[in-house]
Amino acid sequence: MSTQVTTKRISTRDIRARKGGEPVVCLTAYTAPMAGFLDPHVDLLLVGDSLGMVLYGMDTTLGVTLDMMIEHGKAVMRGSRRACVVVDMPFGSYQESKEQAFRNAARIMRETGCAAVKLEGGVEMAETIRFLVERGIPVMAHVGLRPQAVHTAGGFRAHGRAEEEAAQIRADSLAVAEAGAFSVVVEGTVEPLARALTAEISIPTIGIGASPACDGQVLVSEDILGLFAEFQPKFVKRYANLGELVSQAAASYAEEVRARSFPGPEHCFGVKK
Ligand code: KIV
Fold this sequence. Notes:
The chain is an alpha/beta fold. It has two domains: 12-240, Alpha-Beta Barrel (TIM Barrel), CATH 3.20.20; 242-273, no CATH class. Helices cover 39% and strands 14% of the residues. Strands 1-2-3-4-5-6-7-8 form an eight-stranded parallel beta barrel, surrounded by five helices. Helix 6 runs parallel beside helix 8 (163-179). The structure holds 3-methyl-2-oxobutanoic acid. 3-methyl-2-oxobutanoic acid binds at residues 28, 46, 48-50, 88, 142, 185, 187, 208, 218, 220.
């Protein structure tokens, strides 16, 4: 007889129901061990295509492939038990047509077992979002600063200061909510706009660099842990400096190996004294 206790995962419906209520806590995760550390503390784990920059050292997210997202999605599912896991659709895997988006989103859902996919875009992606949702694929949308559009947007910069841009982001948010997205990431927008959107649309807004005025927050875990030294966004608070600890540990190890004072098995973790 199996004594395994199964934990029910937080669903996309649970996240949707948090509109205007307890803030939704989200972090990115790309690997099984990190997912395990974060899982008890968050509502949602996002397997973001930021992994291209954070794990693979790319300059943008544009080089990330569907296969990469699927392998990391599987790892995060293996490492977590409770959080709602959402996997990003990478650049080029959904923009061509709603049929292409369905085919690739279905593959992500089938092969990883995740709860939903995330895709970037607003008004222009509304039809695709509706197509996916009507066919059983929950979608998290992503408006404001859209990293996959970095070349047309003129770099990574705050969005929504100019009136015209703010109006576009508002229209985008309304369109994705109307199309059936269960939540929307609002990235890099000014506070008055994030506040207005949050009041206006019916689904939770998940902010990143968009002020606390949203229904929830998402950050890149490596940013808050001090594990991504390349770039530190201004809005990120660093809760730990693990990069420094890794460097110190490696230096101590190197010193001991070079001094031939490398410890024996009595110093190893897991060996009973
Ligand atoms: O790719 C990612 O990690 C994201 C978050 C930063 C929202 O899209």
